[in-house]
Amino acid sequence: MGQQLMGILPMLLVFVAFYFFLIRPQQKRQKERTQMLSNLKKGDKVVTIGGLHGTIVDLSEEKVTLKVNENTRLVFERSAINSVATADDAAATKSAE
């Protein structure tokens, strides 16, 4: 009985280490990303996964339309948004400069 426990214990410790160092943080990041994508709204300044900066002018369940300059509007999948900086954050950053 003790010998079997000693054989299983290292594998159990490796699994616990993998869970806390790899699986759990990845699940947390995925949850935060899903929440960020669901909280998108018009006027948010965003960066796409391709590095394109723009402001959301229209959005639906699947698509986001970004205004990148006065004459250009591009349509992306919602999942193509990498990060968000709301208008309040941008104003705070600009006033700090």
Automatic annotation (TrEMBL):
The keyword Transport applies. Pfam families: YajC. The keyword Cytoplasm does not apply. The chain crosses the membrane at residues 6-23. InterPro entries: Preprotein_translocase_YajC. It is found in: Cell membrane. Keywords: Cell membrane, Membrane, Protein transport, Translocation, Transmembrane, Transmembrane helix, Transport. It comes from the Bacteria. It is a single-pass membrane protein. Belongs to the YajC family. This is Preprotein translocase subunit YajC. It comes from Laceyella sacchari (Thermoactinomyces thalpophilus). The lineage of its organism: Bacteria, Bacillati, Bacillota, Bacilli, Bacillales.
